[in-house]
Amino acid sequence: MEARVGGRVAGVDEVGRGPLAGPVTAAAVVLDPHAIPDGLDDSKKLTARKREAVLDAILGSADVSVAHASVREIEELNILRASHLAMERAVAGLRIRPDHVLIDGTMLPRGLTVRATPVVRGDARSLSIAAASIVAKICRDRIMVDLAQQHPGYGWETNMGYPSKSHRLALENLGVTPHHRRTFKPVHNMLYQEKIISD
């Protein structure tokens, strides 16, 4: 796919649209066509150990940029716009401006200033997007593991902020943290119930 597009092509992917807590994270990756990492594939198809090994190879040979949109930005903009903002920031952070960007998904961020193409199931069809999916996932997972140490009990080190049964239970028992997305239904409903009770 990159060869068909031609020029300096960046693959872009994001992770973290579905969680109840934490930022949304995007990565932009321009691979060196002469140094494609062994085992590079869609991050969902790789084990955690394999992802880490591929990440090291990506960072050692590619132009990589990672960016985030915060919980506050997610609440103010909505999750889709915040995801696109993270993607725009990731592309802007590359060392050298790409000629073209391949974006995983069906929509293009409206703030992009370079030519771009949306690619459905892009992490399975483009090596650059697959690389971006690995980088974004590992970076966001590390953020959630760090936040789990600051806010124990929610299981973020394993559920990464997604609405697992244990995370929902912890929300009921421990309450809402500053890292929870207050516009997301389970968190919003809990805050609304607390307001009714306090009123």
What does it look like?
By secondary structure, the chain is of the alpha/beta class. Helices cover 48% and strands 16% of the residues. It is built from nine helices and five strands; from the N terminus they run αββαβααββααααα. A five-stranded mixed β-sheet has the order 3-2-1-4-5, with helices on both faces. A hairpin with an 8-residue loop joins strand 1 (9-15) and strand 2 (24-30). Helix 2 crosses helix 6 (127-150). The chain starts with a helix and ends with a helix. 43% of the residues are buried. The model has no long low-confidence stretch (mean pLDDT 94).
Write out key terms for the chains shown:
9 helices, 199 residues
Topology (SSEs and partners):
Elements: H1 2-5, E1 9-15, E2 24-30, H2 48-61, E3 63-69, H3 71-77, H4 79-92, E4 100-104, E5 115-119, H5 122-125, H6 127-150, H7 156-159, H8 165-174, H9 185-198
Parallel strand pairs: 1-4, 4-5
Antiparallel strand pairs: 1-2, 2-3
Briefly characterize the structure.
This protein has helices spanning 2-5, 48-61, 71-77, 79-92, 122-125, 127-150, 156-159, 165-174, 185-198, and strands spanning 9-15, 24-30, 63-69, 100-104, 115-119.
